[in-house]
Structures are given as structure tokens and as C-alpha cells.
Amino acid sequence: MNQFEGSHARMAMGIEVLWKPILWYVKESYPNGRGFLRDGIKIQGKEGQNKKLHKWQQDLDWYIYYIEKLTKPNDTVLDLFCGSGTVCVAAKMLNRQFIGIDISHEYCEIARNRLKEAKSKKELETQSTTNILK
Questions:
Q1: pLDDT digits (tens, 9 = 90+) for 3-47
Q2: What separation in angstroms does the CA of 134 have from each of 53, 54, 83, 119, 131?
Q3: Cys-Cys crosslink for 53: which of 10, 45, 68, 84, Cβ 3.0 to 4.6 Å?
Q4: For residue range 68-101, what is the model confidence (pLDDT) as tens digits?
Q5: CA gap 85, 80 in Å, rounded
């Protein structure tokens, strides 16, 4: 995770987070030939810095990278503390099944609304191509 650019509340306190823990459970082994899994990735988005939807909101890019590397289309992704639903949105974009759980009804509603607006990567690519052709 690369958060060298921008500002974060943690940075004001002198704390720079360069990793996040994830739990990954599978029935079979990680297939050979899928490439390396990096623990340091470049984050393009600013959602994790803005925190408009949730105080612990994370960047979509981080989840897209790991979900795409660790799962196959139609696999199920579980987020036990889904907050504003970033993991679920990334899973939907990548055509994965997802289960999001949160104790807050308010944040579950925010996540539902985000999921209604979320589009798959294929839809975004088609939309982008259509815009270019116009």
C-alpha cells in the first residue's frame, strides 16, 4: 500500500500505515502461474483520504487489486465489517459474489446505495468505449 502522497489524519499524528492485514481462506491451493502477489501497491484513488462515507473508509484500488489476484470470477468474498461497502463494491465490479456484514444499519444502507450504483469493470470498459465512439 502506498500512501506517500496526500494527507491523512494518521500522518498528522506521525503515523504512516504501509500495510493492512487480510485473511484469505481457500479450499484449494493457490494455482501456479498466477503471478506474484505484492504487499506494496500504488493506490490511485483518494477515497481512503477523503473518508466521506465512513471514518475508516478505504480506497477501492487496494481491494480491486487483492480481490482480482486472490479470487476467480463468481468466487465469494466475505467482509465481516463492511462499513460503507468498499469491499463489496470491488467484488461486484470484478464479478465476484460477496457477503457484507456490519453492525450499523446506517452504514449498511450506505453500502446498499453504493452497490446499486456500482458497475462491473466490463460495463465501465463498454461505457468508456461508447463515449470514445460518440
A1: 555 555 656 667 766 667 777 777 777 666 666 777 667 766 565
A2: 34, 37, 38, 21, 5
A3: 84
A4: 988 889 999 999 999 999 999 999 999 999 999 9
A5: 10
Going by C-alpha positions, the residue among 41, 81, 80 that lies closest to residue 63 is 41
pLDDT digits (tens, 9 = 90+) for 40-74: 677 665 655 667 878 777 778 888 988 998 888 99
Element (H, E) at 79: strand 76-79
- Rounded Cα gap, residues 100 and 102, in angstroms: 7
Question: What number of other Cβ atoms are within 10 A of residue 46's Cβ?
Answer: 13
CATH numbers and ranges of domains, the chain? 9-133 (3.40.50.150)
**Taking every pair of C-alpha atoms in the chain, what is the biggest distance, in angstroms?**
48
Residue pair 92/98 in contact (Cβ under 8 Å)? The answer is yes
State the cell numbers at 47.
477515497
Q: What pTM does this model have?
A: 0.72
| DSSP H helical ranges for 26-85 | 47-50, 60-70
